Amino acid sequence: MRTKVEHVMTRDVVHVSRGTLFKDVAETLIEHGISSVPVLDGEGRVVGVISEADLMRKAEFKQQYYGDDYRPALRARFRHLVDHEGGTHTKSRGETAGDLMTTPAVVTTQDISVVSAARVMDKHGVKRLPVINADGRLIGIVSRRDLIKVFLRDDESIKADVIRELPPRAVAEIDVAVEDGVVTLAGETETSSEAIFAVRQAQNVDGVVALRDTLTYRVDDLAENIRLWGGRTT
Q1: Sign of the torsion angle spanned by Cα atoms 135, 139, 142, 147
Q2: Is residue 227 within 8 Å of 210, Cβ to Cβ?
Q3: Do 185 and 198 meet the contact criterion of CB atoms below 8 Å apart?
Q4: CA distance 94 to 60
Q5: What is the separation of C-alpha 145 from the centre of its chain, rounded to a whole number of angstroms?
Q6: Which of 14, 105, 119, 197 could disulfide-pair with 49, CB 3.0 to 4.6 Å?
């Protein structure tokens, strides 16, 4: 089974509009215990996202008292000079969601795998992804917490999926055991390539925490192929 975003996403999504005031955005994040919130236009399309980091810009550039000689970190001062990342210094003066939001928003669709969604999060350094339909309208949201739900799958479901992914000829030769998400493959396959393929397929099943490979094989067909092509096996 390849778990998709639609299987784990939250469908009842908290959101704000461009005109939502700074304080109301802050209250929304705090009240719902979330780290970011999507900003929608009048037709329900995602036009941006506001995160806790976006709100912190207002404090990052603020003097604490008259004559305060504090200077923001070099990173913040550099952003001030180049004013990138959606106008970071401009955000520190923002009053509404439209001023504060990061745009364009990093989004995803419901039909991609949770693995792909996790990679998008990692690449862009975000904790939550708005889920949109073909028209760009918001239909859900997926968080890091949602993505780790795949590791809550029961052992029997994982075992069934592992067996389904094994090479057909090797199914009767491989014993599959699963305990707390840890898969153990035991037995003897006809060829080394079948054993390697079985391990790779099992590792890719959703919910697998770790894999223990104790497989053996009767024929090392990979070494034989190398020999036939004039290569060295040792």
Answers
A1: negative
A2: no
A3: yes
A4: 13
A5: 9
A6: 105
Find, among 14, 57, 36, 32, the residue nearest to 144 by Cα: 36
Residues 97 and 195 in one domain: no
Structural domain ending residue among the three candidates 149, 177, 212:
149
- Condensed to tens digits (0 to 9), the pLDDT of residues 89-126 reads 556 677 899 999 999 999 999 999 998 999 999 999 99
pTM of the model: 0.71
The torsion region of residue 177 among left (phi > 0), alpha (psi -120 to 50) and beta comes to beta
Q: Residue 50 is part of a domain; what is its CATH number?
A: 3.10.580.10
At residue 138, the 3 state secondary structure works out as strand
Residue 216 to residue 199: CA distance in whole angstroms: 12
Max CA distance (Å), the chain: 80
